[in-house]
Specification:
Blueprint (H helix, E strand, L loop, with lengths): L3 H10 L16 E4 L2 E5 L12 H14 L7 H5 L2 H13 L4 E5 L2 H12 L5 E5 L4 H10 L2 E5 L4 H14 L6 E6 L11 H10 L3 E5 L14 H4 L8 E5 L9 E5 L1 H10 L1 H4 L6 H15 L1 H17 L7 E7 L1 H13 L2 E2 L2 E2 L9 E6 L6 H12 L1
Parallel strand pairs: 2-11, 4-5, 4-6, 6-7, 7-8
Antiparallel strand pairs: 1-2, 3-9, 8-9, 10-13, 12-13
Helix pairs in contact: 2-12, 4-12, 5-6, 7-8, 12-13
This protein binds pyridoxal-5'-phosphate.
């Protein structure tokens, strides 16, 4: 029998071995790793809220009030007032009838998708969709068709293909992101909505990197383009710009009632701590209010300074091989800059890259420094 050591040696030989890096400080613009202070360009804490003093105080007060744990799954006795308030809050922000929250964005996708589609159904998805969407689609048993990134003609061809084969009652579900996590570019969402409508398909949009960053009040790309009413499932996470953790989906009341009955990652998992849910609500108010607007202004100044053409807080520099990406990442680290090398299987083979993420909490000097080292 093959031992894990054999597989690990092969990973190392291919430049694909991954190891945990321990942060010796909170998540913030300057972090300490292996006793070295580094400027952090590797977190998704786009607004710098993960270590926000006000939210920390709110979390502590919520713990005093609700305790540290929820004690049961949501359907047993784990649902408390903060969970319901949070779901009302995010549904109101996204202009849907209802919402459901999960312990993470990953759990949202793998619970949600198999509750919508099954073996007689079809999933049509973008090639660059996040692993959680891929895993959800696979788990569902639906027939999957993948179109090249943002390729609307191929998407149309897959929708037509599915419609020819589907039975009367079958569903076709389209999966896209609003802002793609490893490239930082946006989906042509208006055209995607039209195509889904034309072919009678359901549409799920993952706004993991849109919420808090894109659109008025940071409400995301669907909101910016006025498309919320055309999207059946607006999904996202509280673990990026919102600074905490947990996932959500906003949808019709009927869909949410169905998910409560069928989404296995919701049903068979302990409810997120009520204090966490309460703090997320507070963070959402911050993100979508005037403080959020100020932070976004700052974030977008940084983004434009680094890359005038960037469409989000994610700037990718595609390098090529795993070894090249690792070498560049190491070189930056020696200069005091923490920039991760993203490799297969997170991105397609041959497109290993440096992934720089910016935050409102960076100072202008740090952004200038990474710019010089990236372009120079
Ligand atoms: C990060 C991410 C998720 C997962 O969210 P978590 O809350 O971190 O589990 C899902 N979809 C996309 C596009 C993401 O970038």
């Amino acid at each position: 029998m093959r031992q894990p050591g054999d597989d690990l040696r092969k990973l190392a030989a291919d430049g694909l071995l991954r190891e945990l890096r321990v942060l010796e400080s909170p998540q913030q613009p300057r972090v300490v790793v292996d006793d070295q202070e580094l400027i952090n360009f590797s977190s998704n804490d786009y607004l710098g809220l993960a270590n926000d003093p006000g939210l920390k105080a709110c979390y502590q007060q919520a713990i005093e009030r609700y305790g540290v744990g929820s004690g049961a799954s949501r359907l047993v006795s784990g649902t408390m007032a903060p969970h319901i308030q949070l779901e009302k809050h995010i549904a109101t922000l996204k202009h849907t009838e209802a919402a459901l929250t999960f312990s993470s964005g990953y759990a949202t996708a793998v619970g949600l998708i198999p509750a919508i589609v099954g073996k007689d159904d079809f999933v049509v998805m973008d090639k660059l969709c996040h692993a959680s969407l891929i895993d959800g689609a696979r788990l569902s048993g639906a027939t999957m068709r993948v179109f090249p990134h943002n390729d609307l003609e191929k998407m149309r061809a897959h929708l037509a293909w599915a419609n020819e084969r589907k039975q009367d009652q079958s569903r076709v579900l389209v999966l896209v992101e609003s802002v793609y996590s490893m490239d930082g570019d946006r989906a042509p969402l208006e055209a995607i909505c039209e195509l889904a409508k034309e072919y009678g398909a359901l549409l799920l949009v993952d706004e993991a990197h849109g919420l808090g960053v894109v659109g008025k009040g940071g409400l995301g790309l669907a909101s910016e383009l006025g498309l919320e009413s055309q999207i059946d499932f607006q999904m996202g996470t509280f673990s990026k710009a919102v600074g905490l953790s947990g996932g959500y989906v906003c949808a019709s009341r009927q869909w949410v009632d169905w998910l409560i009955n069928r989404a296995r990652s919701f049903i068979y998992s302990t409810a997120p701590a009520p204090a966490l849910a309460a703090t997320i609500s507070e963070a959402l108010a911050l993100v979508t209010g005037s403080v959020g607007d100020q932070l976004r202004d700052r974030l977008w100044q940084h983004i434009r300074n680094l890359d005038a053409g960037a469409e989000s807080a994610i700037v990718a520099k595609i390098v090529g091989t795993n070894e090249q990406a690792l070498a560049e990442s190491l070189k930056l680290r020696e200069m005091g800059l923490l920039v991760p090398a993203i490799r297969y299987p997170t991105v397609p083979r041959g497109t290993a890259r440096l992934r720089i993420t910016l935050s409102a909490s960076h100072d202008s000097e740090s952004v200038a420094l990474i710019g010089e080292n990236l372009h120079g």
